[in-house]
Amino acid sequence: MEKEHTGGISRRSALKRMGAFIAGTAAWGMTSLTGCGKTEKKRIILYFTGTGNCLYVARQLADEHTELLSIPQLVKEKRYELEADEIGIVYPIYGHMPPNMVREYIKRAKLAAGYKFAVLTYGRRKCNAVGIWDEITQRAGCPFDYITTMIMVDNWLPNFDMAEEMKLDKQIPESLKRITSDLQAKRHWHEPFSDDERRQHEGFMAYTGLDPEVGFLMRSEKYFAVTDACIDCGICTEVCPRGNYKLTSQGVKTEGDCDFCFACIQNCPQKAIQFKSLPDDPLLARGEINPNARYRNEHVSLWSIKEANRQ
Ligand SMILES: Cc1cc2nc3c(=O)[nH]c(=O)nc-3n(C[C@H](O)[C@H](O)[C@H](O)COP(=O)(O)O)c2cc1C
Ligand code: SF4
Ligand code: SF4
Fold this sequence. Notes:
With 311 residues, this protein is α/β, with parallel strands linked by helices. The protein has helices at residues 11-26, 53-60, 71-76, 100-108, 129-139, 162-165, 172-184, 195-208, 220-223, 235-239, 263-267, 302-309; strands at residues 5-6, 9-10, 32-33, 39-40, 43-47, 66-70, 81-83, 86-92, 110-112, 115-122, 146-151, 189-190, 218-219, 224-226, 245-248, 251-254, 257-258, 273-275. It has two domains: 40-208, Rossmann fold (3-Layer(aba) Sandwich); 218-309, Alpha-Beta Plaits (2-Layer Sandwich). 33% of the residues lie in helices and 21% in strands. The chain has a six-stranded parallel sheet, sandwiched between helices. A two-stranded antiparallel sheet has the order 1-2. Bound molecules: flavin mononucleotide and iron/sulfur cluster (SF4) (2 copies). One iron/sulfur cluster is lined by residues 226, 230-236, 252, 268, 270, 272-273.
């Protein structure tokens, strides 16, 4: 019912434009006045996602004054300076560490905010992920007031059957409720972890031989192969946050530094992307549990993953 028109645009359009302006001001940290003179907090939430869990969580923690920003897009735009009343980050833990791109982003970023929060999603074992993020951000001169973890579907394909994983109840609404209420109260808190969890992480690092200063930074040509099932749909060229896939006259080729986010292998509609056989690699020694099962968060479309990651 767009009946009231003023100056050539409808009332609804005018309100929409005003909303867009208010959302735009969030990037500059401006606190807006509502109609009744109350001030509204501006919040930015940064996220990194391979299969949608973190985008889903970021969306759930957003209100109408929140701007959601994808870290691969910020890197692409070389946008490292952000200002708002509150800045949050949602990322998946990889071997209890942040994705390499997230780590490199935070090392360069200048985040000006009165309150900073981090939500780390994981599937089974978080170990001292909170302590690792605290250390990285302290060293970067960008400490966080609130750091917590949240369990979601585990998208680590080598060890888990995605079909089985999706059946598990990870109590996601309960976690979201807890985190939302903490953020409303601007809680200053780092979720605790035990010495045992720290030791488990050390054992994992010794077993995998990963560099603690880098985390998962692989080469896509070493780990992924494209089979004849490929139909040249181009999805892999759009979901990779590093732009590692190309359609060529000889089929799809992949090459480049890789976060191991699995956006490519999980989102290929033909299941034509598979892990190479690497029996000597501790990460892939057991191959893959179920090469026929793939995962994307049920609330997140393929289009949204492309929007988040396209290079
Ligand atoms: C390379 C890699 C490493 C992972 N390491 C861990 C881990 O150490 N512990 C854990 O519980 N889950 C681990 N996971 C699971 C993800 O953290 C989890 O599924 C996350 O919610 C995925 O988020 P996304 O859908 O936004 O990409 C790992 C996943 C990947 C791809
Ligand atoms: S997403 Fe899969 S089917 Fe589509 S081009 Fe890439 S490898 Fe081929
Ligand atoms: S090649 Fe695949 S796993 Fe590596 S960064 Fe790109 S989408 Fe992620």
